Each structure stands twice: as structure tokens, then as C-alpha cells.
UniProtKB/TrEMBL annotation:
<protein>
    <submittedName>
        <fullName>DUF1330 domain-containing protein</fullName>
    </submittedName>
</protein>
<dbReference type="InterPro" id="IPR011008">
    <property type="entry name" value="Dimeric_a/b-barrel"/>
</dbReference>
<dbReference type="InterPro" id="IPR010753">
    <property type="entry name" value="DUF1330"/>
</dbReference>
<feature type="domain" description="DUF1330">
    <location>
        <begin position="24"/>
        <end position="101"/>
    </location>
</feature>
<dbReference type="Pfam" id="PF07045">
    <property type="entry name" value="DUF1330"/>
</dbReference>
Length: 116
């Protein structure tokens, strides 16, 4: 079952005189190489978020993996762990890993359980 890594990033450190902080640029340059061995691919990365309910402070990143085992292995990998400080020293926000739903998922089945 497809799994996802979701990041909600905010409080991005001020840009340097030349633009985006060089550590963030290095993180962006290197992250795909950490995803490739685990089948990770970006679905959303830095796109404008259109909030229609509530608030959403910051940017959204969504990465798909073949399964949760691969997502967890990517996050724990030495290659990705080495990149984390490049991001966390300049950007705040959580990252979560979660399973998706199976093909044919029917949300009404979730509501049926408490009714039974």
C-alpha cells in the first residue's frame, strides 16, 4: 500500500543576500538521491497552497513511497539523516509518515463499524 511523507514547513530562516540560504539549496539538491533507493517521489513540493478552510501556516511537501517500510527506511537512512540539519537549522515544521488507503477504499465502511 502506498505510504506518504508529509512535511508542513514554516518559519523559514531569512534569505541570504543572494537568495535562499545555501544550506536549504544544498538540501534540495541532495534529497532526491536519498529518496531513489526507497522508491520515493515528490507529489507536492513548494506549490502554492490554497486554503479553503482553517489556516495552513507554511509550505507543503508530499512524497510517495511504495509502502510504509520504505518510507521509514528512507527517513532512518544515513543519507537522509545527514541532510536533516541542513533543513532543521533553517526551517521549522513537522514531518509525518503514514500509510495511504487501499484501492477501492470506501469511507462508509469506517462509519458502519461504530453503528454495528
Amino acid at each position: 500500500m502506498t505510504a506518504y511523507a508529509l512535511g508542513s514547513f514554516r518559519d523559514i530562516a531569512p534569505h541570504t543576500a543572494g537568495g535562499t540560504h545555501r544550506d536549504i539549496l544544498e538540501y534540495i539538491d541532495r534529497i532526491q538521491a536519498t529518496l531513489d533507493p526507497f522508491g520515493g517521489r515528490f507529489l507536492v513540493h513548494g506549490a502554492e497552497v490554497h486554503v479553503v478552510e482553517g489556516t495552513w501556516p507554511g509550505n507543503l511537501v508530499l512524497i510517495a513511497f511504495p509502502d510504509l517500510t520504505q518510507a521509514r527506511a528512507w527517513y532512518a537512512s544515513p543519507a537522509y539523516q545527514a541532510l536533516i540539519p541542513l533543513r532543521t537549522e533553517h526551517v521549522k515544521g513537522p514531518i509525518i509518515l503514514t500509510d495511504g488507503v487501499a484501492p477501492g477504499y470506501d469511507p462508509s465502511q469506517l462509519a458502519a463499524k461504530p453503528r454495528a
